[in-house]
Design goal:
It is a single chain. Strands 5-4-1-6-8-7-9 form a seven-stranded mixed β-sheet, sandwiched between helices. 36% of the residues lie in helices and 23% in strands. A hairpin with a 2-residue loop joins strand 7 (128-133) and strand 8 (136-144). The protein has one domain: Alpha-Beta Complex (Spore Coat Polysaccharide Biosynthesis Protein SpsA, Chain A), CATH 3.90.550.10. The chain contains seven helices and nine strands.
Length: 202
Amino acid sequence: MKLGVVILAAGAASRIGMAKMLLPYAGQTILGHIVQEVQALDPATICLVTGKYSNEIQMALGATSVDIRPFSNWQAGMAASIKFGMACILEKEPNIDAILFVVSDQPFLERQLLFRMVKAFQETGKGIVAAQYQEQFGTPVLFHARYIPQISNLEGDRGAKKLVEHQLDNLALVDFPLGAFDIDTVEDYAQFQLLLKQQDAH
């Protein structure tokens, strides 16, 4: 299967007031960790969509095999960033089989989850595989290439959620209990560090 991955890191992180994806984690940054976990899938191509913090991200990641694409219209919302990332994937791999969308503020994202999602995609025959947490679905989300036209028509700030809601019969879910935890505030990051300490203590 020829897989493309879009990592969405274009937002302003206005509630925390800094590049939250570059906060320290495990000897690197949260974004560095996410890139590393995505690379473990050995996808055909990875596109990292950046926005307000493009320069900071480029400097933090340095030389990398990831295709870092600054998106000048990042303020247009999540749907615009998704479409920009997908266009980047199709430019490099026009015959892609599936596209995985990952966000840059889910610090507990791990390769095991991503491998389970790919396995579910291949074994269930469903066209969409999403992570499940707190009795709802969310990112990461994997789409069969046949959904490219619908993704191209996305609008607004809800990302691909509305599209998935109309395709529930063709949706497989993979449990990601810590997926609900993302970092929007300084308090969230402090809570994240506390959770890590608790995990280390076990």
